Amino acid sequence: MLLQATLNGPLTRDDHPAVPLAPEELRDDAAACERAGAQAFHVHPRDATGRECTTPAVVDAVVATVRDGTRWPVGVTTGAWIEPERRRLLQHVHAWRQPDYASVNLSEEGALEVAHALLSNAIGVEAGVWTVEDAELLVRSELGDRVLRVLVEPVDVPAADAVAVVDAIHAVLDRGGVTAPRLQHGDGEATWPLVEDAVRRGVDTRIGFEDTLLLPDGTRAASNAELVAAARALGAGEPRR
Fold it and tell me: CA nearest 93: which of 72, 112, 107, 67?
């Protein structure tokens, strides 16, 4: 099972003083997470002002720097809040040269167009499925055997409801014959229940500051590497049987 580390997301140092922002910080953090057991990385590149950015020069430079610190693949986001002008985002995606993959939130307008742009540029697609409706869209799109993986990732779901939500999403994907590997994760209070459920299902998962600042016992994590180590202790990242 793959264990991906999500190093920063949209967070800032106000959220946690150890959030890596600069390229060299992301590189060093990725290296520490690799030592703790991570096998892939997801980062949100920042420009010189610290703003999330999809500009090709920034994205390529950040990814290349992170890759200097790890032997594992490095991916980025295409979140619509970063570049809301879709035409500009598509231009940026077509010009990217360094990312191994990028996440595409199917709930966002124009997501399938962004996914096709990534595929045409030989960049892997992580199809972000937040809801049953997103799963149905992926099935209809016939991209289920072309994406690198499906991110089963309900957003802002209470911990008590999280497993039922992913059950429903997996059922749609199963009925639709989606063959791509699945990476399941949550955020906030649902983070650790969905990591544990992913281990039970034998599917990939992820962990990092983007999803939670807390360890399974509710204490504040000191670093992304500590979160990765905690996920490994639960069985995440173990070889499939």
Answer: 112
Residue count of the chain: 241
Task: Identify the residue whose tokens are 């890596």.
Answer: 20
CA distance 84 to 109: 10
pLDDT tens digits along 80-131? 999 999 999 999 999 999 999 999 999 999 999 999 999 999 999 999 999 9
- One-letter amino acid at 150 equals V
Q: CA 117, CA 119: separation in Å to the nearest integer? A: 5
- Locus of tokens 């002002």: 49
The amino acid sitting at 26 is L
The domains located in the chain, with CATH, are 3-233 (3.20.20.70)
Alpha helices in the chain (DSSP H): 23-36, 56-67, 86-95, 111-120, 132-141, 159-175, 191-201, 224-233
Please report, for the chain, how many H helices and E strands are present, in that order.
8, 8
User: Tokens 């980062």 sit at which residue?
Assistant: 43
Is the model's pTM score more than 0.90? yes
Q: Cβ distance 3 to 183 under 8 Å?
A: no
Distances (CA, A) of 110 to 71, 104, 134: 32, 10, 13
Instruction: Write the CA distances from 109 to 66, 128, 163, 175, 207, integer angstroms.
Output: 29, 13, 26, 25, 26
